[in-house]
Structures are given as structure tokens and as C-alpha cells.
Amino acid sequence: MDETTDNGGPATSPTRPKIPYGSAAYPAIGYKMGSRQMVTTVMNPVTYVGTVGDRENWDPLQGTGTNRKEDKNHRQAIAKYIEETEDYVLNSVLVYYSTADAEFIADDPAAPISMGTLYVQPGALAKVGDGGHRTSAYGDVIEAHRHGDEVLQRLRANGQPVIVVLDDDQARRAQDFTDLQQNAKPLNASIAQSMDRRQAINKMLLEDVLKGGQAPVFEGGKRIEFLTDSPGKLSPKLTGFKTLRYATGTLLVGTGPRSSRAWDEAVAVEIATTGHDDVLQRVIDFWTGFGALPDVATALSVPSGMVKLRETTWLTSANVMYALAAAVREVTQGANMTITQAMKAAATIDFTRAGTTFHGTLVEPAKYDEDGNQVTKEKALTGRDAWESAAEKLATRMRKI
């Protein structure tokens, strides 16, 4: 340690902060948000899991806890992602320490943002404010690989960002959790799914069907809406990526899978077992046939055609696309009819809003009294039961043609 002298007087030592004896020390960055001391540090996931206490659900009567009720499926999905994905990415978790249990000592106390060290008292456990499912998922993976293997080694070599709030006020912790949820905006399905290229169906649609231009109806992707799940009333686009994806998957696996996870797995298995090229050809045949439907073909050939198609037919409805895909799957599976033949049969079906094809399934007709006065207006029906019923009706008509 350097020594200094004051005007030739006795040597003195520079002032140093008092380091809490026996505390765990973590390099960190300290800063303020409002009046509270915030600290950002990084730990490997194995270390991190050992620094937090048990999950605490919110109890408004006792004023304890900050987490929502645990969603076991969500927890398992995160664990599976961590375990199976080498290049995974997770957001920072937010935890709380009492000011009696932890202290941040800045390298430059005068700076509003400073490097420094977070000291945590031995045995003190943090309370998770936001990130309970991620924390539990980490714990599940670590427990499953506790005897040591490449997964555990990978976690020990990885980092998990941790935001630490030094705050004893339980009510304020709960308010933080509410604020974080309200200020977070999840991605809509079309954006999220089009970004996820680990799923074979997403990659096939993006690379082969859209960018590859193998289904002319989509004009290289220009007719697909990615930023929202449904195109606007005056949009020149045909449908959203979410609808394109689900209709395509329904063509491949039918209506059997009843949950998102089961559907994803069934579609992935179908592509893997049948083979990319064979599946791709089925997809191309279906969407090429869709583009050849008279109303769709006309709409594609004129300016503002999609606007008119949306106004006069049901063909831009997601439920109708799902119904049509399910019907084609039904009439071609184990039968002599090909997808191309099924779509030619579909071309003879009336999809106009003025028609009665979907009455009793996707459309509740207008009702009239004995004098012919309208009592209720026509109403579109949505939901799985409605479009599956419509699919059965479409399949019956295709077989008769």
C-alpha cells in the first residue's frame, strides 16, 4: 500500500472502505433507479441457483412474495430449452437483498454509475422478484445433471445476468413486479414465430415457400403480414404468418393435436419422418391451389384486389384457411385424391359472404320474424369447434365433386 506524507509529517494510509469480513464478493456495477441502490452482476447459473431462496408466491394478506402462481409447463419448457440449446439466451433475473444482508462498495463513490463489488453476508439468500420460472428451470436442469456431464459443464461456463435491488420494503418489491409486467410487451405470434428458425416448419415456410417463391400466391412473401397477426382492412396482404403457419401445419398433421406443444411436436415429427422435400411439395401444392381459387386469382390480378377479397369472401379469414387445410388433409389422407385434385374441387365451392356454405359452422345466419323483418344480423363464429365443423362440410363437398 502506498503511503503519503502531509507536509513532512508522519506517514498516513489512504482511506479505504471497510470490507465486510467473510462476505461473498461479486464484481458488479452499481447505480441508482430513483432512491434505491441497484447492482448488476453476473454469476454462472450453478452459483446463481445457490444464492436464492425458495420461490415465494404473492400473498397480499401477509404482504410477502412477488411471483405469480407457478406454471409447471412454462417451467418445463424453459428447462428443456436450456438443456437442449447450447446457444440459449435468457434475460436477466431481478432479485432482492435486505440492506442488512448485502452491501455495494463502489470504486468511485462520487460517480452515479461505478464499478465496484457486491458483498453478501454468508448464508444470506436473495428473494427472486422477476425470473422465478427461469430460476426454477435452471435448478431442474442442474439437479438432473448433478453428477456432472457436458450440460453441467456448459452451465458452469456460462453467465446469468442478475440485477440486485438492495431494498427491505416488501410492498415496494411487489409493486416492482407489477410494474415490470405492465411495462413488458410480448412479441405477437407472427413476429415470434417468423424469428424462430429452430422449428422446421418456420424455416421451410420462410426459406422455401416465401423467399424461394415456390408458392406464387405469396409473391415472395410480400403478401404475408409479419408485424401483426392479422392484416388490416385495407392491407394488400393476404394473411399473417401465424395463420400461414397454422394452416400449413394443419394440412400436414390434421386436427389431432390439441395443445400448442403437441402440435409443434407432431409437425416436427411429420417433417422429419416424411422428409423435407415430400412435405414441401405438399405445402406448395396446397398454397398454389389456394392461389388458383377463382376469387383469390382475381384479387391477385387487380389493384386493391385483397381489399375486395376481404370484403366479399371468407377466404382471408384465418378460420376458413384452417378449415380448408383440415378438409384437404381429410380427403387426401389414405385416399386416391391428391392435394392438387382436392384444391381443384375446392375451386367449385362458394366462399363468398353472400353464399350459405358456412352457415351453421362459421356463420350464424341473420334471423327474420314472420313478417320478414330482420331480428338479428348475420354473425361470424370463431373458435376451433366452428372451423372444424366447417372443415367437415368442405370435405364432404370435395368428395362429391
Question: Layout of SSEs?
Answer:
Elements: E1 24-33, E2 36-43, H1 45-49, H2 72-84, E3 93-97, E4 102-106, E5 114-120, E6 127-130, H3 132-144, H4 150-157, E7 160-166, H5 170-183, H6 189-195, H7 200-210, E8 224-225, E9 239-240, H8 241-253, H9 260-274, H10 276-292, H11 294-301, H12 305-312, H13 318-332, H14 339-346, E10 363-364, E11 367-368, E12 374-376, E13 379-380, H15 384-400
Parallel strand pairs: 3-7, 8-9
Antiparallel strand pairs: 1-2, 1-5, 2-7, 3-6, 4-5, 10-13, 11-12
Helix pairs in contact: 2-3, 8-13, 9-10, 10-14, 11-12, 13-14, 13-15, 14-15
Number of separate helices: 15
* Low-confidence parts: 1-6
Proportion of residues in helical segments = 40-55%
Radius of gyration: 30 Å
Shape: elongated
Distance between the termini: 94 Å
Instruction: Give the overall average pLDDT.
Output: 90
What amount of the residues lies in strands? 5-15%
Main-sheet strand order equals 4-5-1-2-7-3-6
Number of strands: 13
Largest sheet properties: 7 strands, mixed
Query: SSE string, helix = H, strand = E?
Result: EEHHEEEEHHEHHHEEHHHHHHHEEEEH
What oligomeric state do the depicted chains represent?
Answer: single chain
By secondary-structure content and strand pairing, the structural class works out as: alpha+beta
Q: In words, what does this structure look like?
A:
This protein is α+β, with helices and mostly antiparallel strands. The N terminus is likely disordered. It has 15 helices and 13 strands.
